[in-house]
Amino acid sequence: MDLEIRHLRVVCAIAEAGSLTRAAAALRMTQPGLSAQLRRIERLLGGTLFDRRRAGATPTPLGELVLSRAHAVLPGVDQLLADTDRAVRRATAPTRLRIGSVGAPLLGHLLLAVRELLPDAEATARCQYAPAPLLDDLGAGRLEAAVLGDHPGQEPPPRDGVLLHPLVTEPVFALLPATHPLAGQEEVGLARLADEDWAAPRPDSDRTREYWSSVFSLADRHPRIPYEAEGRQLIEIVRAGLAVSLCQATFIEVPGVAVRPLTGNPLWYRHVLAWHRDGPLARHGATILRRVRDGYLDTCADSPVYARWRERYPGAAQPLV
Questions:
Q1: How far apart are CA 107 and CA 129, in angstroms?
Q2: CB atoms within 10 A of CB 248
Q3: pTM here?
Q4: The pLDDT of residue 212
Q5: Using a CB cutoff of 8 Å and minimum separation of 24, what contacts does 138-144 make?
Q6: Interior CA angle at 204 toward 199 and 210, to 5°?
Q7: Are 5-92 and 97-312 equal in CATH topology?
Q8: Where do the domains of the chain lie?
Q9: What are the protein's UniProt keywords (predicted)?
Q10: Which end of the chain is more exposed for a tag (fewer CB within 10 A), N or C?
Q11: Parallel, antiparallel, or unpaired: how do β-strands 257-260 and 162-177 relate?
Q12: What is the mean pLDDT of the chain?
């Protein structure tokens, strides 16, 4: 028999109660059963732990040594058990779910799926332009799930414990001023845009700019980029007629801009869902992926330009789940 934590608890209970009879009652054992267990513990440790008299049980010098070590060990064990119990309860019935996202159309669908599956949990969200900080937060436990995005050749390295679930790879479209001569065409050649002024993300925000440049370099073209912007600011620069740019296929046209497919589909963007392997969403993974996939398809239908493109290329950009 090996010494176990429960044996230390028995020794401490006898010392605290002062007698085997009272300790047996506290431990909900019979007095003969406790006596037999104490004898087994004493044989294991090699000596008598208590002097047992009619007045009660008094620790021997060996018993005092064992008690001092038990009092040092048991609080740490109890804290460990409490911490792991809280962690398990958070994983099975979390009170808060922190969701991160890049600029992509999946965040709303993910939040709706999480609220439906875990209605008692409070879901919060925060957005960043680049996926790398979100991956770091997932790995460190600062987020429970995230919507990520990348481009061919820019897939992120694995993070310990983080599960990546690619949803779909879709084309990248041109974003033009509504008054641009090419806005009247069904598709736009990327080479036709190379001589325009461009608005593009900053090189240090994520690797989108790097990916765009690599595709232009294959055609030995290097567009001029006087405007570095993201999100709403980039759209406003294009709307003002100052530049052209690129956007996700699911981007819905707003007044003043036009979204057009690129001839030959030279650029692509991949949507990815991610959560921690040991997190509260892992056991709902298959259901979440289905819900977000269905939401993505609804988003595709709401974008007329992308919907027409999908009709022309029925085998492309199909969700993986």
A1: 13
A2: 19
A3: 0.69
A4: 93
A5: 138/100, 138/162, 138/274, 138/275, 138/276, 139/276, 141/276, 142/98, 143/98, 143/99, 143/100, 144/94, 144/97, 144/98, 144/99, 144/275, 144/276, 144/279, 144/280, 144/281
A6: 65
A7: no
A8: 5-92, 97-312
A9: DNA-binding, Transcription, Transcription regulation
A10: N
A11: antiparallel
A12: 90
pLDDT tens digit string along 269-307? 999 999 998 888 999 999 999 999 999 999 999 999 999
Q: CB–CB of 280/145 below 8 Å?
A: no
Identify the architecture of domain 97-312 in CATH: 3-Layer(aba) Sandwich (3.40)
Query: Tens of pLDDT along 153-199?
Result: 998 888 888 999 999 999 999 999 999 999 999 999 999 999 999 99
CA distance 205 to 231: 12
List, for residues 236-254, the tens digit of each pLDDT value. Answer: 999 999 999 999 999 988 9
Domain boundaries 5-92, corresponding CATH code: 1.10.10.10
Q: How many residues does the chain have?
A: 321
Instruction: Give me the pLDDT at residue 218, please.
Output: 85
- Of the pLDDT bands very low, low, confident and very high (cuts 50, 70, 90), residue 89 is low
Rg over CA atoms, the chain:
32
Amino acid at 77: V
Distance CA 60, CA 306 (A): 83
| Amino acid residing at 168 | V
Q: How far apart are CA 234 and CA 229, in angstroms?
A: 5
